[in-house]
Amino acid sequence: MMAPDFMPYEGEIYGFIKQMIGDGETARDICQDVFVKAVQFERRMGNTMAINWRAWLYRVAKNMSLNYLKFRKIRLEAVAESPERLHRSSPPGDVETRLLIRSIMEILPERHRRVIELRDVHGLSYARIAEVLGLSQSAVTSLLNRARENFRREYLLAVAPEWVGTLTQSTGYADLLRRIDPLNPQHDLKQALKAHVQRYFSENYAQWDDVRDQLVAEEWIDWLIEQMPLHQQMTVLDIGTGTGHCALALAGYVAQVIGLDQNEKMLERARQKVRQRGMQNVTFRQGDFEHLPLPDQSVDALVCNLALHHAVDPLAVLRECRRVLRPQGQLLVCDFLRHDQAGVWESLRNVWLGFDPQTVERWFHEVHFRSIQVRSVRRYLRPLMQKHRIPGIFCVSGLK
To answer: I need a labelling partner for 256 at 20 to 30 A (CA). Which of 40, 103, 149, 363 fits?
Structure first.
């Protein structure tokens, strides 16, 4: 049987699509859909008319590529306007999650969308899907695997456009894609991110003090302490204490400091510092930022110094902060201003590439803090961070 007249153009059309959208994997999928449409068109038309297949293929490829780019742009713009909305803790079936899944399904190649619907939505067996699609079962398995991976890649692009390239281009993070369930992606994404961040700190705790010193000047902690009305009867919680640098500085101003971090190796380094200095009013605990291991209304002040960007769900962290604060207690959050340097993720495991201060201020209002103040500073950034074009640091404070 002779190959259809349009098949010699497959490589040329693939190259055209790849040039338009910049993603080889997605280009390959769109290209296959173009040629499926060509087969269908040829069957409908038969020999009733002469077809300029090269022009026809380019026209269809261009339209399908533009549709893909349009849907992706709309989705990314929606996320950029309110990036935090996709990181809230939410049960399966949440309206926003369903809408996001639907929007991603719309831009998937038709074959990918259909096989996901048949298997993951309708629960058809592989044998039945093979019958419906006219494929072998092994071809269905291969198609479904590619479809799911395509969905996962698009999901990551939707919820974290700044650093998705870092994750998906590194072979070390291939498991992150594999662990995202197309029908309930939020939970798996959060857990995988947490695991990656903690693995990084477990491997780099011994060098963390040196890393920190390359980020901000030593005087930064002095300035931070000046922003808090501390006194000798207070108990202060330091979230994301790491190796205890901020907690130890606070200890000279208050009755007790509790340093909390998710990584036990970082905390052991912090405890070693306390033992060396003979300090009696500093303790360290391991715990999740989103589920603080403290009773309600148990601390007088709380500081989160350059740590919120490591939290997968910042809004949940702020809710927990308010829960453990006593009435009139102050929360001070300091972090990097929003930036677009994805390479910083690779070196520091920042889940968030900084924040817009107005976004964090809005979160403070949402969890019912009052007397909220916002400040931005730059002078304490080390040259390394300026080299990375990090625009500065901001602080948001509020009272319970």
So the answer is: 363
182 and 148 in contact (C-beta within 8 Å)?
yes
More confident residue, 109 or 17: 17
Phi and psi at residue 133, to the nearest 5°: -90, -10
Domain 1-81, CATH number (from 1.10.1740, 3.30.70, 1.25.40, 3.30.1360): 1.10.1740
Q: At the top level of CATH, which class does the domain 214-399 belong to?
A: alpha beta
- Are the folds of 103-207 and 214-399 the same? no
- 3 state SS for 127-196: HHHHHHHCCCHHHHHHHHHHHHHHHHHHHHHHHCCCCHHHHHHCHHHHHHHHCCCCCCHHHHHHHHHHHH
User: Which two three-digit tokens encode residue 73?
Assistant: 């742009």
Helix axes 137-159, 24-45, angle to 10 degrees: 130
Residue pointed to by tokens 């369903």: 98
Give the helix/strand (H/E) hosting 114.
helix 110-116
- pLDDT 10s digits, 319-378: 999 999 999 999 999 998 877 665 555 556 566 777 889 989 999 999 999 999 998 876
* Rounded Cα gap, residues 354 and 396, in angstroms: 13
DSSP string of 274-334, one letter each residue: HHHHT-SSEEEEE-BTTB-SS-TT-EEEEEEES-GGG-S-HHHHHHHHHHHEEEEEEEEEE
* Residue 278 pLDDT > 80: yes
Return the bridge partners of 235, or none. 256
